[in-house]
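Please describe the entry underneath.
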Amino acid sequence: MSDTFTSEEVIQGKDNKKVIRPFLRLSGLEPLVVRPETNFINIGERTNVTGSKKFARLIREGQYEEALSVARQQVESGAQVLDVNMDDALLDGEKAMTTFLNLLAAEPDISKIPVMIDSSKFSIIEAGLKCLQGKCIVNSISLKEGEAKFIEQARICKNFGAAVVVMAFDEYGQADTEEKKVSFCHRSYRILTEVVGFDPQDIIFDPNIFAIATGIEEHNNYAVDFINATRRIKELMPLTSVSGGVSNISFSFRGNDVVREAMHSVFLYYAIKAGMNMGIVNAGMLQIYDEIEPQLRELCDDAILNRREDATERLIAFAETVKAKGKVIEKDETWRLGSVEERLSHALVNGITDYIDADTEEARQKYPRPLDVIEGPLMDGMNIVGDLFGSGKMFLPQVVKSARVMKKSVAVLTPYIEEEKKQLVALNGGVVKSAGKILLATVKGDVHDIGKNIVGVVLGCNGYDIIDMGVMVPAEKILQTARQEQVDIIGLSGLITPSLDEMVHVAREMKRQNFDVPLMIGGATTSRTHTAVKIAPEYEHGVIHVLDASRSVTVTGSLLNKALRKNFLQEVTQEYQKLNENFRNKKPVKQYLPIAEARKNKAITEWSNFTPVKPRMLGTKVFQNYDLAEIAEYIDWQPFFISWELHGKFPQILTDEVVGVEATRLYEDAKVMLKRIVAEKWLTANAVIGLFPANRTADDTITVMSPQPGTGPVNLECLRQQLKKAPGQPNFSLADFIAPAESGLQDYMGAFAVTTGGDIEVWLEKFKTDHDDYSSIMLKALADRLVEAFAELMHKRVRTEFWGYAADEHLGNEELIKEEYSGIRPAPGYPACPEHTEKYKLFDMLDATNATGIILTESLAMFPASSVSGWYFAHPEAKYFGLGKIEKDQVEDYATRKGWTVEEAEKWLRPVLEYDM
C-alpha cells in the first residue's frame, strides 16, 4: 500500500513500520492530498444555482449537458474542488443534484477533481453522496439543530467516506466574533472525534466569512475576527482545515468586480497566512496581491484589517471613481475633456453633481441668455434621461440623481433669469418653458408621500413644472391652488384605505366646481378597478389610474398632447366603463358563510391543554431615543428596493442581469446614508409597548384590562373570514387566538407603537434647500425600513424578555424576516384587521401620543409617516391571515358592536365589502 504514496506522505513509525501521514485526502478520478505545503485549495463556486445566474438558468431549463460547461470552465480556471449546489425553491433539489452528478461522472476532464456537495437540505446531500465516486466533501453540517441531529448527519457522512465542512453555528445562532468562532468549532471537533469517530484531517471548519465595509460599524472587524479565529483553530486543532465563502467578504460591493477581486485577494493574503487552506472562490477572478493597484490594495488592507475608522468611506469613495477594463483600473474622468454641452449632458445622465456649478456658469457665459442654457443643453440632457428611462435602459434611482443635477444647475441660473425678467418683462422671454404644469398632492388625512415624490421627480425630468403640495392636503386647498396656478393635470396620492374615499370626494368637488383638467390617481391602495368603479363615474373630464412612476410619463404625455388626448381619454373611458360593468355584473364565484356559521368554524376550539404564559411585566413601558445602531441590524432590505421600483429578491437583486448594477449602487448609497443617520443621530426612535390581561368575551370580541387611570375594560372588535373553506380549514378571526372567559384561563395580549420619524423634517427641509430629491427620498425610504426594523426588534424583546413566552428563542435576522417566530403582531388597517378605528383604542391604552410623539390624523394615518403600531398575540397557533371579503350580516353585527350605524360601518369597511353599496 505504501507504494501508492510519495515518500513525503509516509514516515517511519515505531518498530520501523511505515505510517501514513494524517493529511486530508480527497479524490475524484484523481487523488488530491492537502499537505501543509499545498498552500490553498480553490473550490470552484460557479456550479451553484445561488451563485451563478447562468448555471441556475441552465439547470432550471433542464439543460444539464450545457451546464457541464460551467463546471469545465471552473476546472480550466484552476479549481481543485468543484462546489455543486442545487438549493432553489423552484427546483427538485434531490433530482437536480442526482442528474447533474451522474452526468458529471461521465466527463473525465471534470470528474477528475473532487466534488463538494453543497446544500442546506441534508436530503439533497444524501442524494449526492449516493452518486459520487472517490472521496468528496459535504458542505455542510452544524450544531444549529442540536447535538443529536449533528451526530446523526455526521455518521451518515462518515459512512459514505466523506470529509465534512462544519459551519460555526450552534443552537443559538452563528458565530460572529473571534471567541464564538473558536469555541463553536472546538465543541464540534470534540463531538466529531470523540463521539462519531471522525479523523481530524477529515474535518474542515467554516468559521463564517461575513461582509465588511457595509456602513455598519459592528461589521468592520469581521475579517479580523475570521483571520484571528483561523489562526487559533489551527493551533488548537492542527490537523483540521479551514475554509469559507470568500465572496461574502465583498458583499457590499456587488456590481463592482474591480474592488471585489482586490478585496478577495487581499483577504486571502492574510487568511492563508493565518492557516486558511481552502475556500469557495471564482478561481478565474483572483489577482496576485503585489499586482493589485497600490492605492486600491492599501484601501483594501485598511478595510480588511480594520486599521482606520474611515476605511469604509475611503474604499466606497474610491469604488465610485474606477471602472474595469480587463485587469486595468482607470479613473473615468475622460468626459471632462468634452464641450460644456457634452459635460452637462454626461453629468445629467450619470447623476454627477461634482462639477455642475462650474459647468453651469461656463454655459451661462457662453449662451446669450441664462434661459437658453435650460432650454438648450440641460433639456437636451434631460430628454436623453427621459428616453433611456422610457426604454428601460435607466432605472428610477438614476433618474432621481439626474433630477438632483438638474435642480442644482437651475438653482445657479435662477437669479440671472429673475434679473432678466425685471429688465425684459415686456419682451416675453423671461419665463422658462415647460411641457405642462402638474399639481401633486397626498390627500387629506394621509401622510405618505414617497411614491408621489418619485412621480414628481420623474415628471420634472421630462420637462413638466411640478407643484408639490405635500401631505394631508384638503380638497378645497388642492382645487384652489389648481385654479390659481392654472394647472394642466391634478394628481392625487394616498396609501391608507380611507384615502380612497377622499379621492372620490375630490373628484365630486372637481365636477361641482366645473373643472375640466384630467385627474390622475396613484398610491399603494389604489387600483384600476377602484378608479373605474368609484372615482371615474364622479368626474367626466378624464380620471386615469397610474400604476407607478414609470407609467406617469406616458400617461401625462398622452393627456397633454392635443393630437393624442381625445382618443386617449376615449379609450380610457371605454375601458373603465367596461371594468365598471364587469364589476357590477359579476356573479360571486366564491361562496360565503353566514357569520353565525363562520363563527362555528373557529381556528382554535380546544383550550384545555393550553396554559397562557403570564407576562413578566404588565402595563406599559416607554423607550425614548432608542439606539439606531441596534435597530439597523434588523433591517429587511427587500422592500427598500421596491420603494425605488427595483423589483427582485434581496440580496440576489444586487447581481441581477438587468438591475443589478444600479441596485448595488443604490444599496451602497443607502449604507453610506444609514451610517450617517446612526452616527449623527439624524432620526429619533421612540417606542411604547403594553402587555395586558385579556380574554375573549364574545365570538369576535376581546376584552382587555386597560392600565390607564380612570378607564375600564376595553373591548377590541375583530372581524372574521366568511369565505367558505375546504373541510378542516378554519374561518379565522384574531379573537380566536385569545382564551375565552368561560375557559377559566387568564390570557394576555399586547400592543405597541414605534416611530423612527423624530427630527426627520429638519433633514428633509435641508435636502429641499439643496435641491436634493435623491437624498430626501433616500432618507424617507430608510426611515421606513428603520421603523419596520424597530417593530421587529421590539417584538423580539417582547417575546424573549418582557413577556417571555419564547425566552429561549435564538433567531437570526433572516429567520425573523421569514416570521419563523411564535406569535404575531397584526396592525390595524392591514389584512387581518383592516378597520382603522381600532387604532383609537390602541393609542388610548398605550397613551401612545404622549409616549412616542406619534399622532393620528383624522383618517387614522400616523404622523410621522415612519411609524408602526399593532397588537401582540402569543398563542403558538396564532398566524397572519387576510380577512378577504365580508357579507352584510357581519357588517350589521360589527356596527352593533361598535355602536355605529350600518352606513358608518360600511364607510370604514368599504374595501372589504363583498356587496356593492
User: Anything to note?
Assistant: DSSP finds 32 helices and 29 strands in the chain.
